[in-house]
């Protein structure tokens, strides 16, 4: 089949690949760019130099970029809370309204007038609203896919379940309701919704759209993430790894600092915890500086040295969706992993064969103490897991899967509900000050 002309809508250029979402997007697109003509729409990074570096990388890959000179607003400060308050008047979830800048909508509309596009690909669910705002009734004539990195409404539902502050819990529930309605529209009207696990695909089919939902799993670069035999592991070195500007990760870090690591340290004074991730909030920096044997390491260019030297990766998630790339990367490096059932959700991994599971924060403590005393059996388990990762989660295999889905979707008949795609008056494009 001839190469496709694919236009991709997303929040930022996924480079440097410093978060799970960025890693997935970058690894798949750099492989698909060898076969297809790709154009990537994005907001400018907060750091203009980072944007330029990302554009150079994408140019070298043969991917055209359309970058709006408008960074996404920060998730802190008085202006952030003012935007949250204004969103109470919007029918759209906050993140959908935030990303749907009129300039972005206009850039997509202008590009479509000048360039033929075989397939539109929304790399994150909120960007389906950009297509709706840009094309209106013409959306029925387009072929488009939407990538569900997470089922976002489920994340908000889980956040509400663990939030203790009544006002915050009420606001989170409002966001859950808005996201549920928005995802119902997006998954019902896309030519093809794509999930990152069969668990999420089943949820989308059951709750939002009784129709086929494709799956392209998260993966790992098995050549980059590999065991480092010349590095000695410290079995008493515990590691948390993840973006520290994402609410589910911050919830997990709070569990570590409040309910998991203190009792471990009380029993084993030589234990130490490293928290590695990008964009940590100021409160987390201050808190870690006051705690014994806790080290916050922000914005590292390469996480592999930490995966090579730690004795155990901790993933105490109780909020989230999709699947965790950091677990796949750790196991590819033969790093033992301890997580919750939710942390392992959607991954084809077996407890006590590929990784360790603990149901509650309190269950993490004895599991960690036990791991201190048997590092060799855990290392054997992680080595067995790497063999499974090689066969199941290579980016090369997953890129081939997405390539096939793109080709099938580009040649598909319009989805029968696409005639309902016109945005109602109650769902306008986001105002400029968002």
TrEMBL record:
<dbReference type="GO" id="GO:0016757">
    <property type="term" value="F:glycosyltransferase activity"/>
</dbReference>
<feature type="region of interest" description="Disordered">
    <location>
        <begin position="415"/>
        <end position="434"/>
    </location>
</feature>
<keyword id="KW-0808">Transferase</keyword>
<dbReference type="Pfam" id="PF13692">
    <property type="entry name" value="Glyco_trans_1_4"/>
</dbReference>
<dbReference type="InterPro" id="IPR028098">
    <property type="entry name" value="Glyco_trans_4-like_N"/>
</dbReference>
<dbReference type="Pfam" id="PF13439">
    <property type="entry name" value="Glyco_transf_4"/>
</dbReference>
<feature type="domain" description="Glycosyltransferase subfamily 4-like N-terminal">
    <location>
        <begin position="25"/>
        <end position="223"/>
    </location>
</feature>
<feature type="compositionally biased region" description="Pro residues">
    <location>
        <begin position="422"/>
        <end position="434"/>
    </location>
</feature>
<protein>
    <submittedName>
        <fullName>Glycosyltransferase</fullName>
    </submittedName>
</protein>
